[in-house]
Model the fold of this input.
Amino acid sequence: MLDDFMVRASLAGIGVALAAAPLGCFVVWRRMAYFGEATAHAAMLGVALSLALNISIFLGVLVVAVVMAWIVTQLSGRNYAMDTLLGVFAHSSLAVGLVVVSFLSGIRIDLMAYLFGDILAVSRVDLAIIWSGVVVVIALVYWRWDALLTTTINEELAYASGLNPKKEQLFLSLALGVTIAVAIKVVGVLLIVALLIIPAAAARNFARTPEAMAIGTAVIGSVSALVGLRAAYIFDTPAGPSIVCLALVLFIISSLVGSIRARA
Amino acid sequence: MSLLYRNNIVMNLISVENLTVNYGANTVLRDVDFKIDLGEIVTIVGPNGSGKTSLLKAIIGAIQPAKGFVKLKPRLKIGYVPQRLNFESTLPITVERFLRLIGKIERKSCILALETAGVPELLKSQMSELSGGQFQRVLLARSLLGDPEILILDEATQGLDQPGSASFYRQLETVRHDTGCAVLMISHDLHVVMSASDRVICLNGHVCCAGTPAVVASTPEYKALFGDGTEGALALYRHEHNHNHDHTTTQQERLD
Done:
């Protein structure tokens, strides 16, 4: 079964959709869409460093993404707002990444593959990495779920309940780092943010509880991956962008149905 | 200050010693000492910017003191009602789910807490669709869950009209009576403060004066901060105190 590249691609897409689902919800709830983007941009630096140091790209991206998330969490709230710091780190890590890549003489890098991903080239090893990441992310989020929700609703309520919002934020950053590290090969840096936000945004119209929204997001993301891949096969379109287009279609349908229901 | 701390019972729920809090170069709290014991109702009064909210935030651990420390009874269960809570409409959540975030809470307990807070009909409502008053009552209900040993309320009646705020304090009184939990609150409703507190702490960057409502209201520091206009509140307090704590009358009726 795994011999078929379409089956591997589908499994990879569903895996990324599942890991991105709960995180995408938090990204939407906490208004940190830019955080996802900054982490994804930092991932480019991770790719460059991995190639320069000859280590696994997964590891390089993970380390850079988590370190950036940690620095931003630590620095925010003093003299800079979160979005300012994210702006600094997102753009500079992307720039540094591209500069590092230019020093790698003799190595040909298909930068496009990391920007847009290549889901059709997913190997069995990639699948193993992705699904390990999925298990780690879902376990982490499940473990911290109530604490993360309380922190998201109000930090003072969290403190009064004996939680440490900075620590919870770090768990979230870690999960986000893992997701981006496993997803970078599949959907690429630019599209991972779309896959984090669009399915969650589409699920918002129908959910009355956070859990329902997370499950709805997972379903919408998985459907986008499966149908998007099928469409890419039929119409001979690029796979990653096709998945995102499908997610966009579902978002539009959800918004239309949502506004019709609101009027009724 | 000495009035307050002569009574050094070991079972302090919260003890704040020498607390100094800075925001950048500004010192908002300087050498604050205070303790609260089991079952006490302590109210913090003070002008805007006097550090009232900072004191509560330091107690729950949301801000780090520059000097001194806050000691909580080990595993102290705090029911907290913040001053303002901007609820993100991006997060879909029912009142029931919100209440059950605290831990292993049964639906029965949620309904009971909402009844105590006077809003049992809100169980299935979306948090983001509540009015200001409903929201405040849901927060009160939340603070009652999980058997708190102390309720910490930061201007909990903000956004409530006068009858609403009066009934809020009546519910608070009922809760205190039924559960025996301590209450530490910031309030601008001086009438209520004076009639319902065991102790009042008058804060203005430091503890200006503290003691029973009658003692505090007669200090020159208090008069300097709140003027003589509050004499009426004190008279009312004495009146109430001599009779009984009839909390079934609304604020307006009391004033009449």
Remarks:
- The longest strand of chain B covers residues 12-23.
- The interface with chain A takes residues 57, 60-62, 78-80, 82, 85, 87-88, 90-94, 97-98, 101-103, 126, 142, 152 of chain B (CB under 8 Å).
- The CA atoms of residues 30 and 158 of chain B lie 27 Å apart.
- Chain B has eleven helices and nine strands.
